[in-house]
Specification:
single chain, alpha/beta, Immunoglobulin-like, TIM Barrel, 2 domains, ten-stranded mixed β-sheet, 11 helices, 21 strands
C-alpha cells in the first residue's frame, strides 16, 4: 500500500486558528429548555472552546409555546380587544438563559411576524407569520422593547456580542408581501417589489434595535440561495433610501447567507457536494458582494451551513441518509473547516462563522437519521465527536502539507442535487455554468495547531461517495519540535469502529426502540475514543514520525505532548 505523507511544521506560525465552526442552530426553540435540550447544551458547554453562537427561528412567532418539527413560538407579542400591545418575554428568557448558562451566545432572527401584528391576519395563524406588519411603527417598537429587555436582563456588554438579523430566507416563501405570491416563480418586477417590502421591514427592525443601543450588531439577509435577491438587498443597504428616516442606505455589520450540500431526490440522496460547500458557494455570493465596495470586507456569517437539506428527514425517507449517523458527516465537517480557512486566508471570503443546523428531535426513533448532534434517546452521534476533535485544537495554526495525489471525486461524477459534476479539464460543458463545475480536493489532508508544549493534528481520508471503501496508509511527520527530548502521542479516531455509537446499533439489527440493555451497550461507544494506547517516544532530530492506516471517511486526531521526564 502506497503511503501518503503528511508533514507538520511545529515551529511555524500561520496566525491564530479562527474557530469558525462554533455555531449551531435549530427550528424548535422550545426544546431548548426541555431535559433533552438542556442535556445537549451541557454537552456543548463541555466542549470547552466556547462561546458557541446559537441560532433559532421564531423569536417573535405566535403560538402555544410548544415546539414540533420545524416550528416553535414565544407568543411574546399579543394585542387586546382594543389593539393595545402586550409584551411577554418569559419564553425568550428561558431560551437565552439556557444558552448563557452553558457559555453560549444567541444569534437572533427577529422573526416571524406576530399574528396580531400581521398585515394579513385574516389568513390565520398558520400563514400570517410570513407577512409584513400592518403597522411599521409597532414593528419598530417591538424590536426596540425586545432589545431593551435583553440589555436590562443580560447587560449591554453581553448583548453587543450577539448577532441580530431581520428575518430568515426572505428570498423564498418565508417572506411574502401579500398572499398568493410564489417567490420561486416570480418575475423580476415581482421580485423587486417583494424585496423592497423586505427592505422596509429590515430598516424598521434595525431602527428598533438601535433605539435601544446603537452598538448592537445587525446584519442580513439570512439568504437561502438567490443572488438576485441579495443584489437588491445590498443595493438598498448601500445606496437606497432608508424607509425610516430618508437617509442613504442601511447599516450592515455582517452579511448572512446559507449553503446546502445535497438533498432528497426521488428517494435517493446524491453525494454531498463538498466543493460547493467550501468554495463555489462562497465565490457565487462573493461575485455579488464584490460589486459593493463598502461591504466587501464585512464578515460572512453562513448561519445555515449544512451537508444537506431536510433536517428532519432520515432513513425512512432514504437509506442514503445513513451518512448522518456515521463517520462521513464529522469527517465532511472537519475537512470543510480547513478548506474554508484556506479560502479566508487567501482573501477570497471573510467567513466569520458556519452554523450547523443540527440539534436533536423529540419523539423520533433511535438513529432515525435526522441531521442532529444527538440521537432522540440522548445518544451522542459521531458528528458531535467531530466537534470535540475540533475543540481540542490549540490557538495557533501550523503549516501542514499532504502529498496525496488521489482526488475525492472522479471525472464525470456528480455531487449535490443539481447539475454539478466534475468535468474533464475542470471546465463547464454542455448546459453547465461555472457554478456547476466541481473542483477536486485531496482525499487525504489535515489541519494542525499548537498550544504550549503540545501539537494537535487532524488527518482525514474522504471522497464524495459515502459507500466507498478502502484504507490509506498515513505517514505523519511532526517536525520543528525544538528542545523536545521525549513526547507522548495520543491518537483519537472517528470511523466505523471508533467513536461511533451507530455501529453497535446496526449490529443489533437497527431497533427503533432499543431495550435498556441495548441502550447501555450503544452508550459505551458514543464518546470520543482512542485508536490505540498512548505512546511514549523519543524525539529525534526535532521530529516525531508515525505510521497508521486510515479508512475512507475516517478522521484521526493526534496530540503530540512534550514530556519533561
Amino acid at each position: 500500500m502506497e503511503t501518503v505523507h503528511v508533514a507538520v511544521d511545529a515551529a511555524s506560525d500561520l496566525g491564530p486558528l479562527d474557530r469558525i465552526w462554533r455555531s449551531f442552530g435549530y427550528d424548535e426553540l422550545n426544546w431548548t429548555y426541555t431535559p433533552g435540550g438542556r442535556a445537549v447544551f451541557k454537552a456543548i458547554g463541555g466542549l470547552g472552546d466556547g462561546p458557541y453562537w446559537i441560532r433559532n427561528h421564531n423569536a417573535f412567532t405566535s403560538g402555544d409555546t410548544l415546539s414540533r418539527e420545524f416550528w416553535g413560538s414565544t407568543n411574546c407579542y399579543t394585542e387586546d380587544e382594543r389593539h393595545v400591545p402586550r409584551y411577554d418575554w418569559s419564553v425568550n428568557d428561558r431560551i437565552y438563559d439556557v444558552y448563557l448558562e452553558n457559555g453560549c451566545k444567541p444569534m437572533i432572527e427577529l422573526d416571524f411576524m406576530p399574528h396580531d401584528l400581521s398585515r394579513f391576519k385574516e389568513t390565520g395563524p398558520k400563514e400570517s407569520w410570513r407577512y409584513p406588519p400592518r403597522d411599521y411603527g409597532r414593528w419598530r417598537e417591538l424590536n426596540a422593547r425586545f432589545a431593551r429587555h435583553l440589555i436590562d436582563r443580560y447587560g449591554k456588554t453581553e448583548v453587543r456580542q450577539w448577532y441580530f438579523s431581520s428575518w430568515n430566507e426572505p428570498d423564498l416563501e418565508y417572506f411574502q408581501s401579500e398572499p398568493g405570491q410564489t417567490p420561486r416563480k416570480e418575475s423580476g418586477e415581482q421580485l423587486a417589489a417583494r424585496c423592497a417590502e423586505f427592505c422596509r421591514l429590515h430598516d424598521h427592525a434595525a431602527a428598533g434595535l438601535r433605539d435601544a443601543d446603537g452598538g448592537l450588531r445587525i446584519g442580513g439577509p439570512d439568504l437561502a440561495c438567490r443572488t438576485d435577491f441579495l443584489e437588491l438587498f445590498l443595493r438598498h443597504c448601500s445606496e437606497g433610501v432608508n424607509t425610516v428616516d430618508g437617509s442613504r442606505g442601511s447599516r450592515l455589520d455582517f452579511i448572512s447567507l446559507h449553503a446546502k450540500g445535497t438533498g432528497l431526490v426521488d428517494g435517493r440522496v446524491p453525494p454531498p457536494d463538498f466543493d460547493k460547500m467550501v468554495r463555489r458557494e462562497f465565490l457565487r455570493y462573493g461575485a455579488v458582494i464584490g460589486r459593493f465596495a463598502g461591504f466587501r470586507d464585512l464578515p460572512l456569517v453562513c448561519n445555515e451551513w449544512d451537508i444537506d437539506v431536510g433536517t428532519a428527514n432520515g432513513l425512512h425517507h432514504s437509506p442514503d441518509f445513513a451518512y448522518r449517523n456515521g463517520s462521513y458527516y464529522p469527517t465532511f465537517v472537519i475537512r470543510s473547516v480547513k478548506e474554508i480557512l484556506d479560502l479566508k486566508a487567501a482573501g477570497t471570503a471573510n467567513v466569520g462563522l458556519i452554523t450547523q443546523w443540527a440539534f436533536y428531535f423529540e419523539g423520533k426513533r433511535c438513529f432515525e437519521g435526522t441531521r442532529a448532534l444527538f440521537d432522540p434517546l440522548g445518544i451522542r452521534k459521531p458528528v458531535f465527536n467531530g466537534f470535540e476533535m475540533l475543540s481540542r485544537l490549540g490557538g495557533t495554526r501550523l503549516a501542514l502539507a499532504s502529498d496525496d495525489t488521489e482526488d475525492d471525486i472522479a471525472v464525470g461524477q456528480c455531487g449535490g442535487n443539481g447539475k454539478a459534476r466534475r468535468t474533464r479539464g475542470d471546465e463547464a460543458d454542455g448546459e453547465m455554468t461555472a457554478w456547476d463545475v466541481i473542483k477536486p480536493h485531496r482525499r487525504v489532508d489535515g489541519l494542525a495547531a499548537r498550544t504550549s508544549g503540545e501539537v494537535q493534528v487532524l488527518v482525514w481520508n474522504q471522497e464524495y461517495d459515502q459507500y466507498a471503501e478502502g484504507v490509506r496508509e498515513i505517514g505523519l511527520e511532526v517536525a520543528g519540535l525544538r528542545g523536545w527530548k521525549r513526547a507522548t502521542v495520543l491518537h483519537y479516531r472517528i470511523d466505523g469502529r471508533h467513536s461511533n455509537a451507530s455501529t453497535p446499533w446496526v449490529g443489533m439489527s437497527r431497533p427503533d426502540w432499543p431495550t435498556e440493555s441495548q441502550i447501555a451497550a450503544i452508550r459505551e461507544r458514543e464518546g470520543l475514543e482512542k485508536y490505540c494506547v498512548d505512546r511514549l517516544t523519543d524525539v529525534e532530530g526535532e521530529c516525531v514520525s508515525l505510521r497508521f492506516p486510515l479508512p475512507v471517511h475516517g478522521v484521526s486526531l493526534l496530540i503530540v505532548r512534550k514530556e519533561d521526564r
